[in-house]
Design a protein that fits this description.
Helices cover about 20% and strands about 30% of the residues. It has one domain: YggU-like (Conserved Hypothetical Protein Mth637, Chain: A). The protein is globular. With about 60 residues, it is of the alpha+beta class. It has one helix and five strands. The strands form two sheets. Strands 1-3-2 form a three-stranded mixed sheet, with helices on one face. Strands 4-5 form a two-stranded antiparallel sheet.
Amino acid sequence: MIVKPNKHSNRIVGMDDLGRLIIELKAKPIDNEANIALIKFLKQEGLNVRIVSGFCRREKRLRLI
């Protein structure tokens, strides 16, 4: 998954050429704000997830829980 923080809205953009989901978030990548916003956004979409890797990167690996 690719996360793009500091955008105008929270939305799923689509997939990249490697099949990774691209998500844009309003939250800034400071003090874990974007990671928390990602988890909350996906929960609103019906997915309960945990970040497995990529806490400090735009590319993240998630686990469904």
